[in-house]
Design brief:
five-stranded mixed beta sheet; 136 residues; 36% helix
Length: 136
Amino acid sequence: MNPRTTHITAARRRPCTLVVCRGCCCGSPRKHLGTDHACQLDRLRAAAASSDRLTVRTSDCLGPCDQADVIVVQPSTAGRSAGGRTIWIGFALDDEATDDLLNWVAAGGPGIAAPPPTLQPHFIRPPRETRTRARR
């Protein structure tokens, strides 16, 4: 089998990806007292380890520090083909937001399943959109 064919086949089945900010503000116990940031990341990683629908990555800083904790939800290949787009989630500080996020991804995530109504208030604009609008 041609290695290029293998790569394309693997890309066809890419799961939802969560990019979890763990920079200066997100994940900071000093900024968000009472939030167990390590437990949240452990829960997300455990869900990814037990499912082929999810991968989890961390980032040093995604940008919108005033809306910490920030998690970016990238759709699966199937979700993107169905029209799903990347969703930015802010203020993801409690177990309920983590539960809602994990349930949404388990159901298919962006493009496949509608987000739970309780998660929608957490949707934020990506920093690029904010900067672009500010320049106009």
